[in-house]
Structure to design on (1434 residues):
């Protein structure tokens, strides 16, 4: 160690000894300005054999004991380095030289496990529950939660203990080693915002080394320190990962990502589910985000203006909208209370696929209208109405298109025309559709299997042409010919054209009267 | 909102259209209006101008991040209208203001920023009334502030040299945006209120209900740009404050999506940028100096304005306000999750692919953040429930499935975890960790050895692709074979499996020579096969690799005891205990060794120490405690004299013994109900489980923070693990069945008895019962029946239907000479656990005494089938055969017994847990 560093450290040692009680606070504030002190102290800790180690450890402990938050944080910043020092010495089975570091670690631990009154500290927190109102929400507006046992048990807020109470420890044994170290890391993580960059770097290095020493990856990382394996526990790794996460997002991108990879590697080898869980989550959540290394001191977070409208197209069936679906059933559909109806009416549900949205023009089941005359104009877009959700690929649908027979189209269209003329002025499709379905009591009338056998055609215009071409209708055999190979798993036909959609004009609904008339 | 008293229906209608954004109706209404009064012409101009501008903006929406380009021909008309309205000056003052605002907006759209700013200064935005303003005007004012902010941003500084003025300008811009955001929120709330009132008022004819209002460029900017600037400037405190303000406002349909995004972003910041010490809760003022902010910029932390009307916020009594960054993050994430769940795209047709991806991505992020927040606090049970809800999104998505599997594993739901892992293997067949995790679970509590073998074979079949996991795969299959060998009932099968296990372990060790686990298990397997010297060599190697591994040390001690070097073994145990002072398995072995080496008094001292340790570890109330601290446990612990010197006056008299014991068991369940609630904390050293990498086979598996362990797992583990402690070597599959029977019986029994039910997880009580039974055994060795009875009774209070307890009762009876009673107890024990070899052996001996030789022979032969290395069984069998006159067979048995006894450890090797 350079003489200069030694001098700095010695000066620091002597300064504090002569300090009075009252001047402690100012001294703490002034510590920040001593730029060369912290690196010098790091050097002392790294070289185990320095004689300054003992007085330094003692002084750091005094800092911690003083209770002044700044001084405590000053001590805490060295924690990763101290832990590494202790672990590496233990692994090398070097009995001496780690005594003072052990004493320091145990001292901090014993101080932290009791609160001001000397009682054992129990760290707990409240698990929020959506069923209780909070400053950010009201329970009624959030949808009903699943009625699981867990949800019932959590009804109301529960305070849960996550650490403690702990026993005082006099020495390190193999049994309590990781309990103590995990708790110390917990304390360290509680003050992460105050830790400087060098401390975070040291944390990342600790994580890397602890994870890979003695494993094949050590060759990859080319770390030449110790070569025997260090035992770790799952909770210890979880606390390390928590710290690494903070470091990753606050400037230490390279070291942090390496450390995270190494810890995950170790967790995989040891089959620790907790560490894998949190590590994978961090990795996946940072996947898209580009983290640039910021300069020291700047902690800017990238935030963009997000569009307030939902980006999901209106046609996609979502959990919310599926409530309003009618399923293929042979009995009357039960749609629940009228309240639900109005709600559904407000919700954008639906299966109307956009003509424009998809890359390939979606196959449409056009039960379209253009019967001549009055219904013609209205019929134009009716076809976009009836669609079907299936799980099959569009290829099959294309095949179906080709196999379309005019007959089916015809029959349906005729019926559709009739229905349409009834419903021409109705603009709120959903409501109507639902009310219509409710008023359809005929059993079996909702056999959408018939509509299921509807024909696909590529475009609405084609169909209307076809339709106008084949006037005579043979209505006979339509229900039977089921061209569609797709099995209809009870997906409803819901004709539905969202009024707000730009590409469509207001179009009439084709209610399921259609099928019932067949 | 108080509606303005409007004179006519027409005006109301106009107001309504303006509020709801139905600009296409305006021209018609204007025509009707101008038919009425001439003076309304100006108003008509104003309305037309506004309508046209709004329609233009609707058709050519300004995108975020782009700047308006310049004058547009279509907007000429608008300008004409507005100029007409303004110039004539006949309008009422409010309408004049409105006209100016619209004019300013037009100027912005045409990129004439200075003019817009002029307009705003003329109007003096700050003085426009919010209270009593009609709904549309709120929107106008909000947009005006936003536009003003935008203009200020775009206009370059007049004199950029003064840094103060830059800061001031920034502050002004931010204030504009913040005001705009607040008023926009207020406007949206008012609109929703009006709409819902309107729906009720009007006849329910189906009219087009504008479901979601589009916010438009200006309102969106106003809502969001403030915090964007805060974050860009590094002012996290104010950014977070702004987020919170937006979230605290009562939600409306239009803001739902925004709230979801903001909630998630705020949760991200709380988890990534804040720690517990730098947190302040939403209801208090932000700290003056926070490490979160950029130290180079000094911006004021408090708002410097106050609006006359504010948006409604969530309020009430007992509102939950988070006190910690994790709590707040959890709350926000739960809110965000419920919203994201609603938007889960369920349809699977390819045209909805993009939608699926979008909803998956946003939900995935929310679930990842939930994992991070809950993982920090060890709440894996809740996490597994949340991740189950994520399954809606998870079709063919490996990440979510895997996370679910891991969370189930961490929460202790092993059976489900294995099933989910199967699905993960299907989704990602090339990843060796997944089958290894499955094997770990199968070998643990579940004891699904067939499945385990299949999973392990998957890893082995991967060959080189598994890279560093190959050794682990061999290790896993070796363990499976080893456990199968222990389970097997035919000797031939046992040997075959043992051979397979050995070769697998050897392969593992050769693949990864620095892994002490492979070497250790090789040693263990050799020990089980009674190849003691080789086992010793390997275990020493293992200790060289990892010097303080508790199981290696234990195995070493057992091996030394097998070689009859009891003192050396005891030394090793004591050394191990110095590193693992609260490890009960080691302590049990110590008791046994001390009984042999140093005499039973020492052993009793150890028992007493164990009781002390137990009491300090598990700070629980003994269920038989009558509340006065007078239980035997407390007295034993408090008594300084050695246990054997203690006179137990209550128990020395056989008559009063039963009375006293019943008084103990019949004591009213006054034990202060240990709150089952969250304040129960798991015992710190967690004795043998948890912090060790391989949790003890006898106890629950590895999740240390599990609070409410599923009751079904533990008793199984206990009861068949308990076997191993008392000396039966097998961890039999049948003993698992026995343990289930015991559990059922004990539940029934405890409901009949009046003893208080045990609180919390069972393993502390199991340990306590084991300690008592060990003490009883030592007393039996000393010949002290009364004390032995007392100890057994203590154990019986805890687990009355345990076959170990029954066995011990039988032994006590034997000691007292009550052969019939002993026989009864043994038979009861066997009915619960038919493969308990020790019981079988003693029963066989009794039957031999009673001269029922053939029955004795049968029972002893069965025992030998179960465990072919039990030398005392062989010995007894030899005696029985001899008594029957079958000398040749008897000789064979005796020889076998001698051989086995030569290498018999003090406790069977199988008490050492075999887990991955």
């Amino acid at each position: 160690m350079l003489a200069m560093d030694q001098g700095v450290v010695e000066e620091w040692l002597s300064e504090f000894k002569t300090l009075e009680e009252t001047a402690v606070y100012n001294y703490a504030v002034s510590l920040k300005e001593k730029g060369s002190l912290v690196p010098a102290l790091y050097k002392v800790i790294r070289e185990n054999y320095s004689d300054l180690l003992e007085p330094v450890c003692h002084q750091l402990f005094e800092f911690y004991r003083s209770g002044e938050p700044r001084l405590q944080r000053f001590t805490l910043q060295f924690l990763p380095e101290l832990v590494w020092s202790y672990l590496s010495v233990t692994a090398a089975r070097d009995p001496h030289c780690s005594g003072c570091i052990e004493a320091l670690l145990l001292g901090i631990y014993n101080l932290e496990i009791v609160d001001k009154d000397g009682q054992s500290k129990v760290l707990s927190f409240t698990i929020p529950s959506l069923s209780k109102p909070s400053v950010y929400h009201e329970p009624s507006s959030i949808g009903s939660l699943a009625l699981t046992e867990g949800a019932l048990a959590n009804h109301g807020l529960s305070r849960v203990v996550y650490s403690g109470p702990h026993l005082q420890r006099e020495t390190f044994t193999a049994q309590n080693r990781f309990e103590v170290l995990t708790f110390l890391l917990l304390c360290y993580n509680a003050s992460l915002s105050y830790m400087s960059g060098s401390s975070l770097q040291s944390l990342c290095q600790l994580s890397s080394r602890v994870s890979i020493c003695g494993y094949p990856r050590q060759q990859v990382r080319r770390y030449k320190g110790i070569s025997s394996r260090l035992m770790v526990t799952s909770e210890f790794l979880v606390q390390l990962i928590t710290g690494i996460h903070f470091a990753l997002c606050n400037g230490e991108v390279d070291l942090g990502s390496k450390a995270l990879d190494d810890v995950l590697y170790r967790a995989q080898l040891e089959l620790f589910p907790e560490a894998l869980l949190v590590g994978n989550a961090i990795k996946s959540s940072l996947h898209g985000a580009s983290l640039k290394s910021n300069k020291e001191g700047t902690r800017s977070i990238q935030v963009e203006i997000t569009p307030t409208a939902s980006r999901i197209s209106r046609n996609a069936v979502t959990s919310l909208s599926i409530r309003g679906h009618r399923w293929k059933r042979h009995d009357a559909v039960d749609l629940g209370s009228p309240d639900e109806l109005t709600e559904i009416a407000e919700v954008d549900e639906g299966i109307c696929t956009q003509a424009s949205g998809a890359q390939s023009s979606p196959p449409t089941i056009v039960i379209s209208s253009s019967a001549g005359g009055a219904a013609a104009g209205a019929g134009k877009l009716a076809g976009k109405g009836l669609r079907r959700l299936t799980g099959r690929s569009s290829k099959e649908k294309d095949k179906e298109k080709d196999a379309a027979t005019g007959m089916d189209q015809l029959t349906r269209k005729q019926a559709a025309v009739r229905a349409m003329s009834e419903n021409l002025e109705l603009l709120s499709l959903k409501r109507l559709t639902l009310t219509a379905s409710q008023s359809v009591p005929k059993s079996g009338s909702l056999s959408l299997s018939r509509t299921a056998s509807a024909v696909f055609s590529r475009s609405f215009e084609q169909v209307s042409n076809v339709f106008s071409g084949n006037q005579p209708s043979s209505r006979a055999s339509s229900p039977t010919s089921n061209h569609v190979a797709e099995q209809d798993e009870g997906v409803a036909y819901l004709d539905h054209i969202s009024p707000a959609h730009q590409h469509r004009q207001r179009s009439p609904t084709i209610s399921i009267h259609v099928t019932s008339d067949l | 909102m108080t509606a303005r008293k409007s004179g006519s229906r027409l005006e109301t209608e106009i107001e309504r259209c303006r509020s709801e954004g139905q600009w296409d109706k305006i021209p018609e209404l204007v025509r009707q209006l101008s038919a009425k009064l001439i003076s309304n012409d100006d108003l008509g101009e104003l309305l037309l101008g506004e309508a046209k501008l709004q329609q233009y903006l609707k058709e050519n929406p300004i995108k975020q991040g782009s700047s308006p380009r310049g004058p547009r021909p279509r907007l000429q008309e608008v300008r004409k209208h507005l100029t007409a309205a303004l110039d004539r000056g006949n309008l009422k003052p409010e309408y004049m203001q409105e006209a100016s605002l619209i004019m300013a907006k037009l100027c912005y759209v045409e990129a004439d920023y200075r003019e817009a700013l002029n307009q705003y200064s003329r109007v003096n935005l700050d003085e426009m009334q919010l209270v009593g303003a009609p709904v549309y005007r709120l929107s106008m004012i909000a947009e005006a502030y936003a536009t003003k902010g935008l203009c200020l941003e775009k206009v370059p500084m007049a004199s950029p040299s003064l840094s103060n003025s830059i800061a001031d300008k920034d502050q002004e811009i931010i204030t504009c945006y913040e005001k705009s955001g607040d008023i926009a929120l207020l406007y949206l709330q008012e609109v929703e209120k009006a709409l819902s009132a309107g729906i009720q008022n009007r006849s329910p004819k189906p009219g087009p209900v504008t479901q979601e209002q589009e916010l438009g460029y200006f309102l969106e900017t106003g809502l969001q740009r403030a915090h964007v600037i805060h974050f860009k400037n590094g002012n996290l405190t104010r950014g977070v404050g702004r987020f919170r303000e937006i979230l605290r406002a009562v939600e409306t349909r239009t803001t739902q999506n925004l709230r979801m995004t903001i909630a998630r972003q705020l949760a991200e910041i709380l988890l990534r940028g804040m720690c517990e010490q730098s947190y302040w809760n939403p209801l208090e003022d932000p700290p003056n100096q926070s490490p979160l902010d950029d130290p180079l910029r000094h911006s004021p932390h408090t708002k410097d304005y106050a609006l006359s009307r504010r948006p409604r916020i969530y309020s009430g009594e007992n509102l939950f306000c988070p006190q910690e960054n994790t709590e707040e993050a959890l709350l926000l994430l739960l809110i965000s999750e419920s919203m994201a769940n609603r938007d889960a795209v369920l349809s699977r047709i390819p045209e909805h692919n993009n939608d699926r991806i979008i909803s998956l991505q946003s939900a995935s992020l929310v679930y990842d953040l939930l994992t991070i927040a809950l993982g920090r606090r060890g709440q894996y049970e809740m996490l597994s429930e949340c991740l189950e809800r994520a399954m809606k999104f998870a079709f063919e998505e490996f990440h979510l499935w895997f996370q679910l599997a891991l969370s189930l594993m961490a929460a202790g739901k092993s059976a489900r975890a294995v099933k989910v892992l199967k699905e993960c293997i299907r989704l990602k067949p090339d990843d060796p960790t997944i089958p290894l995790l499955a094997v770990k679970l199968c070998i643990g509590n579940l004891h699904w050895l067939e499945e385990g073998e299949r999973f392990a074979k998957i890893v082995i079949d991967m060959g080189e692709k598994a890279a560093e996991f190959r050794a682990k795969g061999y290790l896993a299959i070796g363990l499976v074979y080893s456990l199968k060998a222990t389970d097997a009932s035919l000797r031939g099968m046992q040997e075959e499996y043992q051979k397979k296990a050995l070769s697998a372990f050897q392969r593992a060790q050769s693949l990864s020579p620095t892994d002490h686990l492979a070497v250790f298990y090789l040693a263990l397997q050799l020990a089980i096969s009674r190849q003691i010297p080789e086992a010793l060599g390997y275990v020493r190697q293992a200790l060289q690799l990892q010097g303080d591994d508790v199981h290696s040390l234990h195995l070493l001690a057992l091996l030394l005891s097998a070689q009859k070097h009891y003192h050396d073994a005891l030394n090793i145990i004591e050394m191990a205990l110095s590193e693992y002072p609260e490890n009960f398995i080691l302590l049990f072995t110590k008791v046994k060794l001390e009984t042999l080496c140093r005499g039973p008094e020492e052993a009793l001292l150890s028992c007493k120490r164990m009781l002390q340790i137990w009491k300090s570890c598990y700070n629980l109330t003994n269920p038989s405690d009558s509340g006065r601290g007078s239980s035997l446990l407390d007295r034993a612990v408090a008594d300084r004299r050695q246990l054997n010197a203690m006179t137990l006056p209550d128990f020395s008299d056989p008559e009063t013994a039963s009375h006293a014991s019943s008084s103990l068991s019949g004591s009213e369940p006054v034990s202060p109900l240990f709150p089952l609630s969250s304040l129960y904390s798991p015992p710190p050293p967690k004795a043998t489980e948890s912090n060790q990498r391989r949790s003890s086979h006898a106890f629950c598996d590895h999740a240390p923070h599990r609070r409410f362990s599923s009751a079904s797992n533990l008793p199984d583990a206990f009861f068949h693990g308990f076997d191993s402690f008392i000396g039966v070597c097998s961890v039999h599959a049948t003993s698992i069945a026995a343990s289930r029977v015991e559990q059922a019986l004990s539940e029934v029994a405890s409901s009949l008895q009046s003893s208080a039910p045990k609180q919390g997880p069972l393993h502390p009580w199991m340990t306590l019962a084991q300690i008592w039974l060990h003490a009883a055994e030592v007393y039996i060795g000393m010949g002290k029946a009364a004390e032995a009875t007392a100890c057994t009774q203590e154990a019986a209070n805890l687990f009355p239907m345990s076959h170990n307890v029954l066995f011990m009762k039988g032994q006590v009876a034997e000691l007292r000479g009550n052969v019939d009673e002993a026989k009864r107890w043994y038979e009861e024990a066997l009915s619960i656990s038919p493969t308990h070899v020790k019981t079988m052996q003693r029963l066989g001996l009794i039957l031999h005494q009673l001269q029922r030789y053939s029955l004795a022979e049968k029972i002893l032969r069965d025992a030998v089938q179960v465990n072919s290395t039990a030398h005392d069984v062989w010995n007894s069998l030899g005696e029985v055969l001899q008594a029957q006159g079958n000398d040749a067979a008897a000789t064979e048995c005796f020889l076998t017994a001698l051989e086995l006894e030569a290498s018999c450890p003090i406790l069977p090797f199988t008490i050492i847990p075999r887990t991955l």
